[in-house]
């Protein structure tokens, strides 16, 4: 589990809906117990990562798109 302390407003995480105080439980269906677990999944991920987060005690799915938005 990773506790989210900060989310940059113009980041892929913010666009996916990740918020401060969310807790990341899974990434691409892999349990996340440590930052190393999360980094391992992110390194092997493609352009999209499915996240399972806990927000105020309720599980919530999010999709993190790694591609930068076109301007």
Characterize the structure shown.
This protein has 71 residues and is of the alpha+beta class. The protein is built from two helices and five strands; from the N terminus they run βαββαββ. Strands 1, 2, 3, 4 and 5 form a five-stranded antiparallel β-sheet that branches. The termini are far apart.
Separation of termini? 34 Å
Shape: globular
Output mean pLDDT: 92
Q: How would you sum up the major sheet?
A: 5 strands, antiparallel
Helix content: 10-25%
Name a few traits of the molecule.
71 residues; alpha+beta; five-stranded antiparallel beta sheet; 2 helices; 21% helix; globular
List the helices and strands and how they pair.
Blueprint: E1 2-3, H1 12-16, E2 23-27, E3 30-31, H2 35-44, E4 48-55, E5 58-65
Please sum up the structure shown:
This protein is α+β, with helices and mostly antiparallel strands and 71 residues long. It has helices at 12-16, 35-44; strands at 2-3, 23-27, 30-31, 48-55, 58-65.
